[in-house]
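Subject: mismatched residue count in predicted assembly?

I count 987 residues in my input, but I want to confirm that the predicted structure covers every chain. Input:
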Amino acid sequence: METFYSIHPLIALLIPLIAIGLIVLSGRRPNIREFWTLAASIAMFGTIFLMLPDVLSGRYPGISLLNVSPGISLAFTVDTAGIIFGLCASALWIATSVYSIGYMRTLAEKKQTRYYAFFALCLASVVGIAFSANLLTFVLFYEILTIATYPLVIHKETPGAISAGRKYLAYLLTGGLALIAAAALTYHYAGSLDFRSGGFLSNLPGEPNLMLLFVLFLIGFGMKSALIPFHSWLPTAMIAPTPVSALLHAVAVVNAGVFGFVRLVGYIFGPQLFHDIGAWQILSIMAAVTIIISSLLAMFQDNLKRRLAYSTIGHLSYIVLGVSLLSADAWVGGVIHLVNHAVLKITLFFCAGAIYARTHVENISELNGMGKQMPITMGVFTLAAIGLVGIPPLNGFISKWFLGQGALDSGLWIYMGLLLLSGLLNAGYFFPIVRRAFFMTSEKRTRVSEASAFMVVPLVVTAALALMLGLVPDGIFHFFKLASDTATSIFSGVAR
Amino acid sequence: MMNHLPVIIPVALLFFAFITFLCGLWRRSLLFPLSLTGISVSLAAAVLGLVRVLQYGPLHYFLGGWAPPLGIEYVLDNLSAFMSVLVLLVAFLSMIYSRQSFLKEVPDKINALYPLLLLMLAGMAGIIVTGDLFNVYVFLEIASLTAYAVMGIGNDKAPVAVIRYIILGTVGACFYLLGVGFLYFVTGSLNMADVASLLPGLYGSRLVIAAAVFIVIGAGLKMALFPFHIWLPDVYTYAPSGVITFVAPLMTKVGAYILIRMVVTVFLPEYLNNTLPIMSIISWLAAAGIIVGSVMAIAQKDLRRMLAYSSVAQISYIALGIGLANPLGLIGALLHVLNHAFMKGCLFQVSGGIRYCTGLWQIPQFRGLGRRMPWTMAAFTVAAISMVGIPPAAGFFSKWYLVLGSVQADNWIFVAVIVLSSLLNAVYFFRVLEKVYLGEPGENPAVTAAVDPPGSMVMPMITLAAGIIILGVINAVIVTNILQPIASSLS
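Triage response: the counts match. Full output below for your records.
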């Protein structure tokens, strides 16, 4: 592995930032404005995709800009873990951009310029998080992401949205501040903040209080990844427009938190140290509790988006669990679930949004016969639900398989059982929706009337992507190879 | 010429104060251009001085040719050059800003106002560049007396509010003078460098302890360190909004400067902490001030008062950094002096701008102003984000160094205080932002008819807002080149 100078990471970051300017300037001409969003998403994805061959061959594009604090520069390195997150977020941004056009116009939402501008800012922050080469750069973009999402959460400007925004800020700013404290403490101990696979905190002089450090990180990343008990902002934030829930609150923002755990375990503490201080037990138990409780809570939600939100909370913890078990297989399963869950969950949200845009139905109890009215949407919904339950040939199965393998490798049978139980619970809260849609009838739904093509095409495409990732886990994007390379680089030389 | 730079900075202001007064009697229209010229000359000297200091090291100027310790010495080193550029830059922008505001709020008083403001700035500049302990007192009185005068020119409540400031300010100055007197008894010298070199042999003396305590209390009163902050909120609320854009960002900073100067140049911080825990007391008072100021800010409905309490909290950040007595803490304090001057300057300019255009200052009445005054509110948003401490705005970075300093001092309570206060900042600033951007204008004619203030008021706000972002991005340049050499004297 080596890092070579490349301007590509910077370009990937600048594209959405430039797009913000163009979006604001063409605010009065919606078609041109949406063109910029779409162009930026495609350009950003293209830029990141072009870096893929180098990363796969073990050469990481990197760039170091000005110092942000003496001795710590604003630096980006595209490593295997970073490009997984970057590719996933930017690819799904394309789908979301198309979907947004259909959704926002169908519902004639106000202030669409603000919406698209902040959406681009969020994506810029996500890329910054994915590619940051040191913890301070990470923290900078992590904080920007918090603020950039706020205007999207309160988009509707109703009292409910405003109070959801307050809750959102209260949780995520607290997390951000804990992270700043954690970064300061890390710097104090290690004198450096550069991520290194295998961790840079080992062999510290003195007697560092690593448990305190871990707890600060736990609060910092736990808030964004909606780990119970830090989760309650996420269901509340579902008041945002559906594309926001889809890309940001099922993919980008929450994955930023989960990605923080990836960096924490693999690149800051390192598996050995993480094991030695016993932090893995705390984290894996919290993840396990989150998986079970969130699935149970999901069953009691009648609002479709809220049910999906609780499902998200659970699936994010799959990733956290995979990361915390400290075995190569579980790591691969966790990291690849970051992508798999993102693709599946965004599809489900797209479906929920299409239903809402077409019929203004938000609640599951009103979905009777929806399969007749919107067969494509509900068909795709069923497919994605199967994926999240973990049934082959969808991609959700792959991640669960590796997670289970990892649990067995570590001799932790209980986590294997947990995964199986969670699959059942997933079925328990997803299949009633499917049953209502296809096997129960309603008098008003007899004619086929799907939502606009701008919404239907993206959801079909993401579902197809999920299927592809299930059948050929290493196709096109090589997510599987990336994930296993990550695991190899982190666990090499670690005896457990 | 270059050797004269230290003295040009205050003297140009002093000179233009009198010129402005005389010419103002003849033509009122000359008041503003002459004042701006005075500040520009000083600012140019300060910038030149900073560049030169960074290249060749400190500049010393002996007043009247009398060498220290007998004569008075003016010194431009990293600290004083940095501070003078900062003070004059903000003063320059505030001067441009306040012209329209003065014409609207206190049109009949500008003959006195402009010369007094210049005198006040001369006092501040003098405090910063002088290397003589007694000379600091002289300039401190110049700055304070003129500040009482300009702040008393406001509405009916202003003179009453200023009375308290006069009393406490005078007490503060007296304490400082007493301290200096004691130091003079002990060392026989008033030159800071000379005193500093004589003191280590005399650290056993009780007079030195008394001197240190008096000086710290004096500076604490001037910088409104908790619990000496009680004069501040009323004064900031009732003074003319143009005047406040000078006083709020600068006056308390000069108090902080005196404290920093004493810690960096005159006393050794180990001494201040070993005999009496003075530095620890400063930092604990500051921690209390941060919380009290932030909580009080949340309770305010009047924007000016909210900003005033927020100033109490922010000044305490600076004091906390000083009290940590380690290099990172001091860097945080110095950087926050700079950042807070920009942020509070911007925020008070916005507050004055809102008042100028709508006559409003109660936050609940701001509903829907965001759409009516887009530029003003954009500046406000940037400054608010920076106050909360969101990167890339400058506020994040001073907080970062303060947290680093607290961690280095192994004081987790301070870390918790900084974290908590950031959240409290978020509460009171987002409350305003919600009103401004998400509220409907409703029937209030003052809001529906509002527009951005004239360009001469908007430009300084936008410049400061842009400055906040730029300072954030280039903070490492400032820290490495200017602040680290200052702070390294503590290690």
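The interface with chain B takes residues 66-70, 72, 136, 139-140, 143-144, 146-147, 154, 157, 162, 165-166, 169-170, 173-174, 177-178, 180-181, 184-185, 187-188 of chain A (CB under 8 Å). Marking this ticket as 'not a bug'.
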